[in-house]
Structures are given as C-alpha cells and as structure tokens.
Specification:
- The chain is α+β, with helices and mostly antiparallel strands.
- Helices cover about 40% and strands about 20% of the residues.
- The strands form 5 sheets. The protein has a 6-stranded mixed β-sheet, with helices on both faces.
- A hairpin with a 3-residue loop joins strand 18 and strand 19.
- It is globular and about 80 Å long.
Length: about 425
Amino acid sequence: MASSRKSQQSPKIGKRIGVALSGGLDSVVLLDTVCKTQAANKHPAEIWAFHIHHGLQKPADDWFIFCEKLAKKYKIHFDFRLLHLGSESTQGNVEARARAGRYDALAELCAEHGIEDLLLAHHQNDQAETVLLQLLRGAGVAGLAAMSEVRELKNGSAKIYLWRPLIQQSRVELEGYAKANKLKWIEDPSNQDIQYRRNAIRKQIIPRLEKIQPDAVANLARSAKVLAEAQSLLDRLAKQDGSAAIEQSGLKVKPLLTLAQKDLPAANNLVRYWLKSHGLAMPSQERLASWWKDLAAVKPHAQLEWLHDGLKLRLWRGLIKVSQEQVGEWEFKKLPASSKTLGLPAKWVKEAQKNGLMTLQPRAGAEKIQIRPNTPRRSLKNLFQEGDIPPWQRQAPLLFIDGELIAVAGIGVSYPHLVATGPRVLPEWSQESF
C-alpha cells in the first residue's frame, strides 16, 4: 500500500459512512443517492469516499482524479489506497488478487477513519454473474449464495460491516437513474475484455439467457437469496453437529471422525463451517475426500499438515488447527517503578543493544534455560513439551545477550538475570500473523 492523500476537511463528531468509489456507473449512482439521502436527514452522517487505485491500466490516474473531484463536488471526505499487484505472469490471477487487495485496502481505510459501515455498489446483474461463475466452478450452497446484502469484514479488532444497498436494483435501473439525474461516470475499457470470465458472462452469456428468459437476471439473483437462507440453516446444523468437535483451539478429530462415519454430508458441512469461521475458502469435494482418507489412516498423536487457501492446516495432539506463517520481534516492556514484577536491568539491556552484544539466533537443539528459582537449567525441548506448545510455534528466534540465552518465546526469561529493584524491562516476543 502507498501512503494516502487525505481531504483537508475537519472531521465532525457523529456516525460516519464509507462509500467505495471506483468512478463507474454503479458507484457514482450509489454516492449520489447516499449524499442526497444524508442531506435530507436532520442529523446527517459524515460521508467518506474511498477509491482504490489498482495501477493496472494507463487511465487509472484519470479515474483517481475524477473520483477526487467528485468527492469535492459533493463536499465529502476523500481518501485512497494504491495497490501494487505486479504482473499477471508472475503473480497469478489478477482478478482474484485485485479483489482481495481491494477489500484489504477498504478495510484499512475504514479502520483508519473510524468507520464501521462501508457501502458497496454491487447490483442485481453483479449478483447474477457471480451465481453463474460459482456454478461454473462447481461451488456448493455457500458459493451459490453469492454476495450477501450485509456481512462483517474483519480488520484486526475493528468491526466493519459491508452493505450492498443496490443489490436488488438492475443495471438498467441504475442507468435510468444516472441519466435522469445527469450524472457522469467513467467506463472501464477492461470491462469489454472477454478474456476475463466475468466479462465473458456479462457480454456473451447473460444477453442470451435474457432472450430465452427475460427475467433471467432477477431470477438468478432471487436464487442466490434463497440459497443464502439455506446456507444459514446449514450453518445452524453445523453448530449443533460441532458442539462436541469445535473448540477455541481447534477442531477435535475423534468426534469429527465419529460424525463422518455416521453422516458424511453432515461432517463435510461441519468442516466447511469451521473453515468459513476462519475466513478460509471452501474446499472441493476431491480435497475433502483426500482429507478424510488422511485422517482415517493417521495414527493417534501423529502430526499431519495440509496446505489450504494459502495457509497450513495442522493436526497435532488430536486437534486440527489453522497455522499462519508468523513474523515478529523482541520488544522490551518498561516496568513501572512500583511493580513487583522481576525484570532485566534496563541499563544492562540498553548497553547490550548499543554495543552489539544482543543477538537473535535460531534453535540449535541443545539450548537450556532456568526460568524458575531453585530449579536447574532445562532443555528447551522439555519445556516446550511441558508447555504443550505446538512445533510450529517454537520457531521464534532465541534472545541472547553477550552469548548467554536470556529469553525464549512461549517459555520465559532466564531467572538468574532478573532483578527486583531499579529500572528494569521485560522482553516480550511481539508476533504478527500474515
């Protein structure tokens, strides 16, 4: 992400609404209706227009300028993000990466500006196209339910709700509104390129379906709504079936296999629900079958690892867990003078940092540390096992000062180096998942 340019308007106190603004017909109509609706309210919400600059086409700068000027015309706030997607040949499907990057960027903007409600301009035709795309992929009920009218988008601890107020409106209706209100918008030339599947469906398939069935678009969108209701019932069933299998730390294999032997479709539904709760994509039938085969053959307490949706699913001690690649750093938390917590002498740590005596090293396999008084130094292997720490969470670098092991993430700090008085700090491993 590049840094963003923010409007110079001073923020107002009160509810805020975000509107995703691409500059196309749909988002321009949405912005116009939102601004007019809020202007008519006695206590209007503060409106922010968010533009995502993909940088994939030469006119992208012009679209950005158009959106910024439009925000000024409506006298609302404006902010943007620049995505760096690279080339299609080196980084895979541009459509998928752009879509994922767009949602991440919008979530960042909402979190930055304290916005909980973000409005998107998807309409009935978009919904119909999504249903057909999911059918071609062989999707199940969750996929065919397509886009919901409202859903939660996570960004750290911030709660953001995505709203699609135009989802029941057809593109023809939006065009009629735009012409009646003399709105101007930008036509994206890439929307004409039928090498992209969605464009091919929009330009070639939908028109033919409408000749066969005039209400094809509305009917497809209606089917998506019915399937969304069916999916909510399947989720409710999964919660019931998963009462003995789902826990905060993972998915318990034993009751899961018992359910699979009794009712495989119910077990498949439970696995899909559990994956969805972690924000992961739905697995294919072939992948599910492969997982069941692996689980049936694995020995008790054995380890197993699957790669799914860019993350690793790991079986350890009878639990399936989602394991993210992790990065982090050692930070030194300053302890208050009145604290009774033991810590490292602050002066000693500062001098070690200044003189290059502080190092981070990977495990070699024979390290030992004393973490409690009146106890011997013990191997990290034993401490990790006693702490019930999964193997993939034992990879944080060890903290050394002047050649001595000082701290181990998940285990603790070397007791002989701790003091009870004077300025002191406590090393903590700050971890970030991606």
